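Figure caption, in words: inputs first, then the predicted bound structure.
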Amino acid sequence: MAPTANSGWLEGDVALITGGASGLGRAVALRYLAEGASVAVMDRDRGRLDAVVSAAGEHVDRVLPVPGDVRSPDDLHAAVASAVDRFGKLDILVPNAGIWDYHRSVTRLTGHELAAAFDEIFAVNVKGYLLAVEAAWRELVATRGSIIMTLSNSSFHTNGGGPVYTASKHACLGLVREFAYELAPKVRVNGVACGGMRTQLRGPESLGLEGRSIADSFARSEAAGERPHVPLYDAGVEPEDFTGTYVLLASRRNSSNITGAVVPVDGGIAVRGFRTSAGGADL
Ligand SMILES: NC(=O)c1ccc[n+]([C@@H]2O[C@H](COP(=O)([O-])OP(=O)(O)OC[C@H]3O[C@@H](n4cnc5c(N)ncnc54)[C@H](O)[C@@H]3O)[C@@H](O)[C@H]2O)c1
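Bound structure (nicotinamide-adenine-dinucleotide present):
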């Protein structure tokens, strides 16, 4: 279909986003709606799912809230079936639901705590992505669709979390690459490696950190006058500032030959060099 001047980049597409009731997933859901897609939003938080539907405004007919837990294969199959029942097909899957480990170092945890945190974080962050792809690949093959996984600076670099979170996000990089290989040429699989942003990202229940959010860490850093040690230190850190790459990678018109790629959207962590000041020149 030839694009018109007014059409969105995802006009007529259908997406399923896990963890789409808050933070980044919610921002991607609202952006996809604005780009013309219909969006099924899966999340375990029913209250926030209702809030996404309210936020959809004029696009409310194109949003479908689906309660469920990404650790459950049955819940994910039900989410895919609901999206296809309601909208007729599935073009885009965004595995995104995740939890953080609050930078808990190996030096601060007992073996039992590490074991429990590993099981919980890997179950959500890694198994949740794996099972989402298993539930969706048949529909994505049918539409020659694509998968965009939320990765992290912790998929490449240290100290974006502790060892459990960093290992989980490195594992997700492996999933992008393996699925890009396995599902070619019918389904493209890419990732967005996000830097820090102000969301409600929670810690594991097994460490008693489910009530804290990364937004608290941002508030503390801001109160202390700290700024990110990245070249683009004044780039936006709201979830909406990260959504453009999700649109680009989902768009057949604009990225039909991209698979197995990960776009770092992190303010330039990879080129920050040895300076402690942010820029290469005093700009
Ligand atoms: N916030 C950051 O700084 C940052 C940086 C890089 C990557 N990320 C990644 O972004 C993704 C989204 O996180 P966010 O920052 O928007 O956090 P968030 O907590 O605001 O949103 C995550 C959503 O996932 C849902 N969720 C968690 N576990 C679930 C489960 N088992 N089943 C179903 N839903 C579940 C939560 O209810 C929540 O709505 C995560 O994969 C995270 O690792 C976040």
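The first strand starts at residue 14 and ends at 18.
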